[in-house]
Each structure stands twice: as structure tokens, then as C-alpha cells.
């Protein structure tokens, strides 16, 4: 009897807690684009927020390592205490999204990719940075925001209207560095096969990659390309060729986002890409993440790779891989005439909208995206593809990248036309993951036009879920 | 002298009241003892009930990590889910995976346990060695298998090439993806079935088997009429655990193919995870989990009932 009473109390308590928690959440939900009122400051001073403590959430990455190494200098300069956590990328964004959703101001600052901003900004999780950047009392006079590559800085700007390009609206994060997607090739493989130059067109790429199958014995193949059922399969080589071919993922029609993945251009380039995978890609392509692709290039299993430029940067270091010293870089192969560009992945740091220590957080962001830190990171640490133009002009950095044949030339040839080529919208991860699943189906024999029609229909239904106009 | 307890008072047989409850001083701690003993269980229950209750609540909302506001939308998530062909596909894949994994592991587990139930040196050593896969986390086991089946560097692919099979791409091909995850599942979890069945076999009485031997019963006759009915309660426990775990299987499939190629291996837990954490649509993902919960609950409920029945039967009641 007593036990029953006790259980009844417990269950009603639980029901009460659940519903009060839920109703609290509903009430606390507010507008996503509230402007932040900042108090006026009198002149810029690194020491103004001495004694404050901020929490920083970092992804396991060379950019994070460079930040951690120089934390003592930052703490000494500002008197701000930094508590940080480092999480491997596999679970980083799950953890970060949950933390931001809690809206308790922890972390104050966090690393993010630009694609994630399309979810976090409409949700009201991140602080718009224009009021900080444009305030002389908050930003050091030598900060020079115009020193960032335009395409890279634009990747972190958006006006929150699905379908509007990046580069419009507020600045939501500050870039730390970026990756462009290029063609990596093994000089030894090319010499062995009597190939003098890297392929310039996509057809040449298919021909050469096919020729290089088996170039280094059993199991070796032409070109490493990512293939898992993940958005990460779409954004490197495939999206780069997709946009260079003139295809588009979305267009706005009658005020609505409409998928264009079944357009003739999209079908053409998808068929070419699938042909490349089938003829010269890894046999178990659909299991390939960036890690397998990079490893195969470094181990001499793949003669080429069409992926982020960091592949050759890291694999070419003495002792870093079996093929160190043999890897070179070339621009992405073209499918038609015109300026070549690349889709970009940008690592940035952003501020939590719920942070209670926004000024201290901004000092942190400012310090670790300053010219001085970026030059240090690019020459003394493992920071690759720094976001500031001045670093690329630095002699120390130039010397460092000169060890990789074609790296600087390729960078200079594509950077002007490189930025994020996707259409910003909050269902990005949803639509690109389904896109990757469709690509897998086409590689496994599905008809490209039919499968892309089905994908476009599916995506149109998914973007109907959008709750921002 | 007879004393009975009536409405809170101790009453002697001749109806003379001895002492009331209030008059007997029971120490406070003694009174609270049952609650103190049960409190960890109550805490655990609360810890389970709160997220469970919240999951039910949020399944009726359009809660998403992508938006600051969410609304009560009633049964909309459930209706969309039932209308979605991907849901029915994931139900089919979940049932196929769970059914096949359970059958394969049970059959293999029983055969290997019968082979190991003898006192030879080989059997003794194998009893230890065969448990090894069970102590490896399924994700790690999957990564090991991923390396072994890699087309460029994998040892299994190399062996297959040696015998003339050149294009077997394991988890990368929709035709062989289910087979590959089942092989990994069986490698990791068959030892669990072996362990339980072996424990059952070693606890069986010797007399019925000796009688069967004297009467000239064949090995098959003894297995079918004696061994199997007597180990049935143990076997059912193994089946119950494996079936429940296979229905909820996430790690092996996610680590190997993330549900691909295409949608080949998108089970209910994988679809729920993808909706919740990749697409950030928590409200939409929860009906998938709740359906899975109902499924697991019903199956385990009937299996436990059947298990009680077989236990009675095995003990001759």
C-alpha cells in the first residue's frame, strides 16, 4: 500500500518535472535575430577584462593546437583566464549543438565550420560580430579585417534568407583557415607511366586515372575520392566540379527554394564523376572518408586524390608518409572553359549568443585571428591555409609551401573564384546527406537522371520544413 | 496466548488491547529502512522516466536544434513517419537484421557450445580464446573488420583475390552490405550465446544422459529429446538478449557504412540518429525511437512469458 503511494508520488513528480521543463523551454524560446545591445567602452585596451574567465570549445585540429600552445601569451596579455575543451571531430558538432541549445552561455567561444552557421545563426545560437569588428573601442587598430581573403570571409556572412548567397548580411564568425579542393598527384606514378603533366580537363583525368590503376602493385588504383553516406562526400571534389560545370543546387522560384539537382548540367557532371569513380576510384569507394583517401595517397595506394589541399601538405612532410616528397598539386580539372574555382571548407571561431562575457570572448577571438598569431601558426605550428592574405605573402610561409610542387601556383589560380558554392539554408546537412546517398546509388547502377529526379523531389519536400523565410 | 493484529492495534485473543502502534516506539531509521534500501532503484526509475516522458512530449512537437521556437503539432510527426516509405524500409531492414543475426548467432552458438562441452585440452583452450571478441567494443571490432575488408590493404580481400574472387567489396556493395554487418555481428556476439549455452550444458544432470546411452539412444535423439529441452531456458535468455540488442543495433552499422550504400542499411536506430543529430530534427526522430521501444518491449514481454513456461517444463512441473 505504502509502496503504491510512494510510486504514485514519484510518477506524479516526474510528470510534473517533465511538463514544467517542457513548458519552460517553450517560453524561453525567443526571436532568432535579436540585436545585441553593447555598452559603450572608452578606447581599446587588452587588459580591460582582466580577471574574467571564458570557456572555449575546440575541435581536435592543428588550428586548435596552435591556439592551445599560445594560450599562456593570451592570458598574460589580457589577464583573462581561458578554460578549454578539445573534442574529436566525430562527436564535436553533436556536443557543440547540444551545448548551444542549452543557452546557458557555455561555451563563450567555439570552433565551427561555415556550413554549421546556417543552422546556428537562424536558431539564435551565435552572436553577430559586426558590432564588435566595427567598434574601435573593442577592436585593436591593427586588426585589419580587410586582410582576410574576400571569399573566405564571405563564407561566414549570411543574411539568414535561405537561398541568398554567402557574403550577404551579418558576419557570424571569424575564419581561422580554410581548405580548397585540388587535384593531388604522385609524381613517381606519373613518371612511371610516362605521363608528363597533370590532367587539365575532366576527360583527361578519367583517362589518366584509369591508366594508373594498379600502378603500384596489387590493390593500387587511380584516384582517391570520398564516398560515405555523408554530407562530407559532397563538399570536396564533387561540389568543386559541380560548380565549375555551372550546375546549381538550388534556385529561388516564386519565393520558394527549389532543388536543381536534376538539371541537365547536374546530371552531366554527376555522370562524369560517377564514371571516374567506377573506372579509377577505390573499389570500396562508399566506405571512403577523407581519412582513407588521404592515407591511400600517402601510402602509395592511390596515384591521385581529388580533395582538400591539406592532403599533400601533411603527407609530403619528411617521414609523414611513404610517398612524402613525391606528391604535387594541380588545379581541379575543368569540364568547360572559364575561371576555375573551388568549393571551400572554412574553420572559424564564433561567439555564443548567450555568453555573459562577450567582450572578453571577443578579445580571445581577436587575438587568435590576428595577423601576428596567424603568421606564427603558419610558420611555427601546423596551421595550413591561413585565412589572411598577409600570411601568404610572408617569406617564411612561402618557403614552407614551396616544398610542395604546384601548391602556391594552384592556390593563386583558384582563390579568386573560390568560396562556398552551396546555397545557404538550414537544411544543408539533411539535403547533402541525401545527395550522398543518391550518389552511392548511381555508382551502384541506378540511372542518374531518375535517381536525381527522385532526389530533387525528396529535397523539395525536406526544404518545405524550413521555418525561416 | 494468541495475539492478532487488528486495525493498527495488537489485540489479545480475549479482546484485551495490549499496545497500540503509537505506543510501540519504532526508531525512525528502522521505519525508513525499506525506503532507504529501495531509494537507488527509485532514483534509477526517475532517471529513466524523466527522459522517457520528455521523449514522448517532444515527439508531439516540431522541436529542432535549428530553430529557437518549437510548437505542439500533435500527431503530425507520427503521421509523416507512417507515410514515409523510408520508415517502412527501415522497419524491414531492422527486422531482417535482427532476425538473421539472432538466428545465425543462436545456431552457431549452440553448435560451438556442444563442441566445447568436453574435457579435451583443445576444448579447454578454445573456451578461453572464443570469449575474446566479446571483450572488444563493437565499434573497435568494426574498425578492425573495415581494415581487413579494405580492397587495397585488407587481408580478407587479398585472400579472396588469391582464390580468384576479385570484385567482392563487402560493405561497399548494396548486395553484400547486410551480409558484411551480419558477419561482424556474429563474430562479436556469438561468444555471448556460447557462454550462456555452455553454462546451461555444464549444469545438466548426468543421469538422464547415462540412461539414454544405456538404452542405445542416438546422439541426435539425445540432443533433441534431452539436451535441447533442458537447455531451452538458457537458450531463450540468449535469444532474448541478442534479439533485443540486434533490434537496437547502431554502432556496427554506423561505423561500417553509416547506413549506406544508398539507404541499404538504414535501420530504425540509424534513421532516428540521422534525423536527430545530422538533420537536428529531434521532434521528428523521436517517433522512430518510440516505435522501436514498443517493438522491443512487446517482443521481450512475450519472450519472458514463454521463458517462464519453458523453465517450468524443463524442471518437470
Keywords:
heterodimer, A: 469 residues, alpha/beta, D-Maltodextrin-Binding Protein, domain 2, two-stranded antiparallel sheet, 14% strand, B: mainly alpha, 2 domains, 3-stranded antiparallel beta sheet, 3 strands
SSE blueprint and pairings:
The complex is a heterodimer of chains A (about 475) and B (about 325).
Chain A: H1 2-28, E1 53-59, H2 62-69, H3 71-78, E2 81-87, H4 89-101, E3 109-113, H5 114-120, H6 130-133, H7 150-154, E4 157-158, E5 170-171, E6 174-186, H8 187-192, H9 202-211, E7 221-224, H10 231-234, H11 237-244, E8 250-253, E9 256-259, H12 264-280, H13 290-299, E10 302-308, H14 310-315, E11 327-330, E12 344-351, H15 358-368, H16 371-380, H17 389-393, H18 395-401, H19 407-414, H20 428-443, H21 448-463
Helix pairs in contact in A: 9-12, 20-21
Chain B: E1 3-6, E2 9-12, E3 17-20, H1 28-59, H2 76-83, H3 85-116, H4 121-129, H5 138-149, H6 155-162, H7 177-202, H8 207-214, H9 219-247, H10 251-257, H11 268-278, H12 282-314
Antiparallel strand pairs in B: 1-2, 2-3
Helix pairs in contact in B: 1-12, 3-7, 3-9, 5-7, 5-10, 7-9, 7-10, 9-12, 11-12
Describe this structure in words.
The complex is a heterodimer of chains A (469) and B (317). With 469 residues, chain A is an alpha/beta fold. Chain A has two domains: 193 residues, D-Maltodextrin-Binding Protein, domain 2; 207 residues, D-Maltodextrin-Binding Protein, domain 2 (3-Layer(aba) Sandwich), CATH 3.40.190. Chain A is built from 21 helices and twelve strands. In chain A, helix 9 runs parallel beside helix 12 and helix 20 runs antiparallel to helix 21. The longest helix of chain A is centred in the N-terminal third of the chain and has 27 residues. Chain A is globular, with a radius of gyration of 24 Å. About 2% of the residues of chain A have low confidence. Chain B has two domains: 57 residues, no CATH class; 238 residues, MetI-like fold. In chain B, helix 5 packs parallel to helix 10, helix 7 crosses helix 9 and helix 11 packs antiparallel against helix 12. A three-stranded antiparallel beta sheet of chain B has the order 1-2-3, with no helix packed on it. Chain B has 317 residues and is mostly helical. Chain B is 68% helix and 4% strand. The two termini of chain B are 40 Å apart. The chains are: A alpha/beta (469), B mainly alpha (317). Chains A and B meet through helix 1, helix 4, helix 13 and helix 20 of A and helix 1, helix 6 and helix 11 of B.
Amino acid at each position: 500500500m505504502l509502496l503504491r503511494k510512494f510510486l504514485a508520488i514519484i510518477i506524479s513528480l516526474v510528470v510534473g518535472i517533465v511538463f514544467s521543463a517542457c513548458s519552460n523551454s517553450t517560453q524561453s524560446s525567443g526571436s532568432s535575430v535579436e540585436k545585441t545591445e553593447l555598452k559603450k567602452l572608452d578606447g581599446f585596451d587588452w587588459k580591460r577584462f582582466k580577471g574574467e574567465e571564458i570557456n572555449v570549445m575546440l575541435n581536435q585540429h592543428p588550428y586548435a593546437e596552435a591556439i592551445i600552445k599560445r594560450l599562456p601569451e593570451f592570458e598574460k596579455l589580457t589577464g583573462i583566464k581561458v578554460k578549454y575543451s578539445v573534442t574529436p571531430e566525430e562527436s564535436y558538432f553533436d556536443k557543440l549543438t547540444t551545448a548551444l541549445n542549452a543557452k546557458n552561455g557555455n561555451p563563450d567561444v567555439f570552433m565551427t565550420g561555415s556550413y554549421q552557421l546556417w543552422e546556428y545563426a537562424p536558431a539564435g545560437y551565435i552572436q553577430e560580430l559586426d558590432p564588435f569588428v566595427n567598434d574601435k573601442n573593442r577592436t585593436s587598430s591593427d586588426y585589419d579585417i580587410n586582410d582576410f581573403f574576400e571569399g573566405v570571409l564571405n563564407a561566414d556572412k549570411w543574411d539568414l534568407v535561405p537561398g541568398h548567397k554567402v557574403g550577404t548580411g551579418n558576419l557570424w564568425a571569424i575564419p581561422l583557415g580554410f581548405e580548397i579542393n585540388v587535384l593531388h598527384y604522385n609524381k613517381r606514378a606519373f613518371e612511371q607511366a610516362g605521363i608528363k603533366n597533370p590532367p587539365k580537363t575532366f576527360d583527361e583525368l578519367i583517362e589518366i586515372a584509369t591508366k594508373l590503376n594498379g600502378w603500384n602493385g596489387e590493390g593500387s588504383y587511380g584516384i582517391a575520392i570520398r564516398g560515405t553516406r555523408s554530407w562530407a562526400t559532397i563538399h570536396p571534389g564533387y561540389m568543386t566540379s559541380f560548380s565549375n560545370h555551372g550546375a546549381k543546387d538550388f534556385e529561388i522560384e516564386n519565393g520558394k527554394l527549389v532543388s536543381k539537382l536534376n538539371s541537365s548540367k547536374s546530371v552531366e557532371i554527376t555522370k562524369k564523376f560517377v564514371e571516374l569513380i567506377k573506372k579509377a576510384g577505390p573499389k570500396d569507394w562508399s566506405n571512403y572518408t577523407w581519412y582513407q583517401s588521404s592515407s591511400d595517397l600517402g601510402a602509395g595506394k592511390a596515384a591521385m586524390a581529388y580533395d582538400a589541399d591539406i592532403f599533400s601538405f601533411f603527407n609530403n612532410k619528411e617521414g609523414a608518409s611513404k610517398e612524402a616528397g613525391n606528391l604535387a598539386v594541380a588545379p581541379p580539372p575543368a569540364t568547360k572553359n572559364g575561371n576555375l574555382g573551388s568549393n571551400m571548407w572554412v574553420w572559424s571561431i564564433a561567439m555564443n549568443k548567450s555568453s555573459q562575457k562577450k567582450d572578453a570572448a571577443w578579445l580571445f577571438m581577436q587575438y587568435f585571428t590576428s595577423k601576428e598569431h596567424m603568421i606564427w601558426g603558419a610558420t611555427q605550428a601546423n596551421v595550413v591555409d591561413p585565412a589572411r592574405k598577409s600570411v601568404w605573402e610572408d617569406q617564411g610561409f612561402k618557403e614552407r609551401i614551396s616544398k610542395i610542387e604546384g601548391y602556391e601556383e594552384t592556390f593563386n589560380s583558384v582563390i579568386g573564384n573560390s568560396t562556398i558554392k552551396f546555397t545557404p539554408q538550414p537544411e544543408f546537412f539533411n539535403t547533402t546527406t541525401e545527395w550522398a546517398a543518391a550518389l552511392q546509388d548511381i555508382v551502384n547502377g541506378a540511372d542518374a537522371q531518375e535517381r536525381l529526379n527522385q532526389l530533387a523531389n525528396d529535397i523539395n519536400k525536406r526544404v518545405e520544413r524550413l521555418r525561416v523565410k | 496466548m494468541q495475539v492478532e493484529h487488528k486495525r493498527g492495534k495488537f489485540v489479545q485473543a480475549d479482546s484485551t488491547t495490549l499496545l497500540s502502534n503509537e505506543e510501540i516506539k519504532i526508531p525512525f531509521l528502522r521505519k525508513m529502512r525499506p525506503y532507504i534500501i529501495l531509494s537507488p532503484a527509485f532514483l534509477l526509475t526517475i532517471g529513466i522516466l524523466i527522459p522517457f516522458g520528455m521523449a514522448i512530449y517532444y515527439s508531439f512537437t516540431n522541436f529542432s536544434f535549428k530553430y529557437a521556437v518549437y510548437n505542439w503539432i500533435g500527431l503530425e510527426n507520427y503521421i509523416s513517419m507512417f507515410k514515409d516509405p523510408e520508415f517502412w524500409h527501415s522497419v524491414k531492414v531492422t527486422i531482417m537484421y535482427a532476425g538473421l543475426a539472432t538466428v545465425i548467432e543462436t545456431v552457431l552458438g549452440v553448435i560451438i557450445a556442444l563442441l566445447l562441452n568436453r574435457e579435451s585440452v583443445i576444448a579447454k583452450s578454445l573456451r578461453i580464446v572464443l570469449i575474446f571478441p566479446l571483450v572488444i567494443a563493437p565499434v573497435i571490432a568494426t574498425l578492425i573488420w573495415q581494415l581487413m575488408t579494405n580492397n587495397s590493404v585488407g587481408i580478407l580481400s587479398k585472400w579472396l583475390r588469391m582464390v580468384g574472387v576479385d570484385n567482392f567489396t563487402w560493405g561497399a556493395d548494396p548486395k553484400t552490405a547486410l551480409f558484411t554487418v551480419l558477419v561482424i555481428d556474429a563474430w562479436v556476439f556469438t561468444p555471448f550465446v556460447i557462454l550462456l549455452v555452455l553454462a546451461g550444458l555444464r549444469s545438466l544432470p548426468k543421469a538422464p544422459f547415462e540412461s539414454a546411452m544405456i538404452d542405445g539412444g542416438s546422439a541426435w535423439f539425445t540432443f533433441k529429446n534431452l539436451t535441447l529441452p533442458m537447455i531451452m531456458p538458457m537458450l531463450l535468455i540468449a535469444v532474448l538478449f541478442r534479439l533485443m540488442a540486434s533490434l537496437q543495433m547502431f554502432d556496427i552499422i554506423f561505423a561500417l557504412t553509416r547506413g549506406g550504400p544508398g539507404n541499404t542499411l538504414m535501420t530504425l536506430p540509424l534513421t532516428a540518429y540521422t534525423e536527430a543529430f545530422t538533420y537536428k530534427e529531434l521532434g521528428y526522430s523521436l517517433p522512430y525511437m518510440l516505435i522501436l521501444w514498443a517493438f522491443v518491449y512487446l517482443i521481450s514481454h512475450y519472450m519472458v512469458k514463454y521463458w517462464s513456461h519453458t523453465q517450468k517444463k524443463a524442471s518437470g512441473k
